Structure formats: structure tokens, C-alpha cells
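Batch job 17 of 40 flagged for manual review because the log was empty.
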Amino acid sequence: MYDMSYKKPLRILIVEDQPAFQELVTLILAADPRFKLVHTASNGEQALEAFASASPDLVLIDFLMPGMDGIETARQMRNSNPRVLIIMVTAHTEEVVARLAAEAGIEAVIPKAQFSLARLQQQVWQRDGRRSDNGCRLNFYDDVRMKQAGDS
């Protein structure tokens, strides 16, 4: 259903303090060969270290974590690399969280209860033009995009 002629997978950093959810996201990502998990972190400080060493294309980050929260962590990542795609995956769906996320340079917020491979793919692929220099060809066919847009 989608174009598999990409050159290399999208490198992903997961930043999540709940081990069970971190493992769930890891299993979900494994279902799509266009995603490659390069590192995990359970707090903001670990995330910044992993971000510097792993150079991910995509960061999936939680809002509330021990120490530095996801908003400040994302802001620092964005300042370090303006081209990285950052998506917040959080149980906190209040409008204020979405506003703070946008102000920090986070491109999308996915509620944890609604996290799925299809939802993640939808958010990534509609933003894929910014990352054309990483060698990926990540375009779903138009009919798949329209179908997934109806899932929101």
C-alpha cells in the first residue's frame, strides 16, 4: 500500500519514562521497516545525550518525565537541530499542552490512548518534505493518505 523504495530508514529516538509504554512503541515501530530505533531515554537529560550521539531524524517524546520535561527537552533539541521532526506522545491532551508543544517546535501531539503505527505514519509522512535530504522516500499513495486522514 505504500512506496517501499526508500534508501534508508528514519532514525528514531524514543523519550518515555514508562518502561511498558516505551516497549509498546518499540514493538509498534518494528512493524515498519522505514523506521529504525536508534536510542531510548527515560528523562530529558538522557534524551539530550542520546540526541547528540545518535542524530535521530525523528524524536517521539513524552510530556511529563522526571527532571526536565518534554517541552524543555524538545526546545533544546530544536535549537540544536531545526530539521529534526519531534512528535509528542502524551496522556496529557489539554489544549495548553498542545500550545506549549507548538511553541517548543514540536510538530504534532499524539494522545497515548490513540497511538498506533497508522497515526504515527500519518504524522510523519505529511511532514516528509522537510527531510528530503536524508535519503528517505516516505510517501504514501494519495488514497492511503486520504483514508488515514479520516482516522483522526
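Reviewer: the log was empty due to a logging misconfiguration, but the result itself is present. The domain at 10-114 is CATH 3.40.50.2300 (Rossmann fold). Unflagging and moving on to job 18.
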